[in-house]
Amino acid sequence: MAENKFKSYLKRRQPFGGTLDRPFVVDMIGDSDLPDPETLEELKTYINQRSPDGTGALEAAEYIWGLYDEERGNA
Predict the structure, then answer these.
(1) Rounded-to-integer distance, Cα 60 and Cα 20, Å
(2) For the packed helices 55-72 and 40-50, what is the interaxial angle rounded to 10 degrees?
(3) Does position 25 have pLDDT exceeding 70, yes or no?
(4) Which end of the chain, N or C, is less surrounded by CB atoms within 10 Å?
(5) In whole angstroms, what is the distance from residue 50 CA to residue 66 CA?
(6) Residue 43 phi/psi, 5° resolution?
(7) Phi and psi torsions of 14, nearest 5°
(8) Are 63 and 18 in contact (CB under 8 A)?
(9) Is the separation of the CB atoms in 16 and 63 below 8 Å?
């Protein structure tokens, strides 16, 4: 099975520090169905399908994705 690069990033990079970030990171690391998203939109779509009222998760996802993109050289 291929490595989930986003999940590996979350494990390696935590803690992120924000109050919304910790629950999001813990939830995503523990999610065995988490895809390996290539874009923020893919991640947001997954979060919305999983938890339609995931406003806090979406905010945390946007913040953390920005850091992830910077590390990947996409910022």
Answers:
(1) 6
(2) 160
(3) yes
(4) N
(5) 21
(6) -65, -45
(7) -65, 155
(8) yes
(9) yes
SS3 42: helix
Closest by CA position to 31, among listed 19, 17, 16, 54:
54
pLDDT of 55 higher than 80 = no
Pick from 10, 12, 27, 11: which is nearest to 63 by CA? 10
Q: Could you tell me how many residues make up the chain?
A: 75
pLDDT at residue 36, rounded to an integer? 95
Q: Which two tokens stand for residue 67?
A: 């850091």
| Rounded CA separation 52/17 (Å) | 24
* pLDDT single digits (tens) 34-49: 999 999 999 999 999 9
- Most distant CA pair in the chain, distance: 32
Cα–Cα distance between 54 and 65 in angstroms, integer?
A: 16
